[in-house]
């Protein structure tokens, strides 16, 4: 009977200890996961911002080049007539 009582007492103590310790361990793990996720999401946001800026710069360059070429070729009367018809 003494062995059975000790086993039961050990199971009860182990269960209580597990119930007390497991939330603490889970919280620490959860915080590590959140920190890792936050770092990765911040890196992703920064990469998106950089790509957006590069695309904007390229679009501005293309627009500027197009306007320069358009103005250079605009001297033609046909282009003036087309522009007048388009209202630009």
Termini separation comes to: 101 Å
3D shape: rod-shaped
Structural class: mainly alpha
DSSP strand tally? 0
Sketch the major β-sheet: none
Summed up, the helix count is 2
Radius of gyration (CA) equals 35 Å
The percentage helix is over 70%
Tell me what portion of residues adopts beta-strand conformation. under 5%
Question: Ranges with pLDDT <50 over ≥5 residues?
Answer: none
Q: What is the arithmetic mean of pLDDT?
A: 81
What letter string, H or E per element, gives the SSE order?
Answer: HH
What's the structural blueprint in terms of helices and strands?
Elements lengths: L1 H72 L3 H10 L2
Please outline what is shown here.
It contains two helices and no strands. It is an all-alpha fold and 88 residues long. It is rod-shaped and about 110 Å long.
Observed structural traits:
mainly alpha, 0% strand
Describe it for me?
With 88 residues, the chain is mainly alpha-helical. It contains two helices and no strands. The longest helix is centred in the middle third of the chain and has 72 residues, at 2-73.
